[in-house]
Amino acid sequence: MSGVVSTTPAVARPATARPIPQHVGIIMDGNRRWARARGLDPVEGYREGARRLGEVCEWAEQAGLTALTLWGLSTDNLKRSDQELSGLLPLIGETIEELAALRRWPVNPIGDLMALPGHLRAAMERARDASHRAPGMTVNVAVAYDGRREIAHAVRQILCAGTIPPADADDPAGNWQHLIAEHLYTRNQPDPDLIIRTSGEQRLSGFLLWQTAASEFYFCDVPWPSFTRDEFDLALDSYASRHRRYGL
């Protein structure tokens, strides 16, 4: 797909004293609404939205992030019509492979990949293998993703391995929390400091349920295909202006 990503070398933004998130998650919402507002087929909204991926990776890298998680498709989205999915699923595979082909960022597919058609699962695995030695920030691409499934998957892995942690009298749940975190799709990565959702909806919809316990949230009305560098910077500015509190 032409124009998915830019090959312009990253240029770091000037260093400032403002807090910078290590990890940002983005719920890329509003592709279909963008298309409907223009009288276009829904897949054209996704196609335009795909063109933002490389750009937002550059913006995130220039801002100093170490990880970026982009939610492209939920498990519920797989229930959409065959007509829509026939255009959307190949587009996702093509986009992810093009992103990985730049060898600028390790592309890490996350989600219930076994729920995907074989051709898309294979494309995501090729993208992961082609980019795993890339030097930049980690780019998680969430496809067939559901936060409850992720937690259930982690617990199932722990139980299947028989690695039940010993109880700690001072913190009975602490060992379990650590063990579950080690089996999430984002293991060995910092939890997201900031979650951005586009297109006006103000809910998580199951995105990174475990990891967002202490995250900050930023909601904007702009649909994903119209998301710009200015909107991204506004989200970072909003994050920087907050005094983060852990707990109540």
UniProtKB/TrEMBL annotation:
It comes from the Bacteria. The keyword Transmembrane helix does not apply. PROSITE patterns: UPP_SYNTHASE (PS01066). InterPro entries: UPP_synth-like (IPR001441), UPP_synth-like_CS (IPR018520), UPP_synth-like_sf (IPR036424). Binds 2 magnesium ions per subunit. Its cofactor is Mg(2+). Pfam families: Prenyltransf. Mg(2+) binds at D29, E216. CDD domains: Cis_IPPS. Gene3D superfamilies: Decaprenyl diphosphate synthase-like (3.40.1180.10). Keywords: Magnesium, Metal-binding, Transferase. Transmembrane segments: none annotated. The active site is at D29, N77 (proton acceptor). Substrate binds at G30, N31, R32, R33, W34, S74, T75, D76, R80, R197, R203, L204, S205. Its EC number is 2.5.1.-. SUPFAM superfamilies: Undecaprenyl diphosphate synthase. Belongs to the UPP synthase family. Z-FPP synthase subfamily. Catalyzes the condensation of isopentenyl diphosphate (IPP) with allylic pyrophosphates generating different type of terpenoids. This is Isoprenyl transferase. It comes from Streptomyces hesseae. The lineage of its organism: Bacteria, Bacillati, Actinomycetota, Actinomycetes, Kitasatosporales.
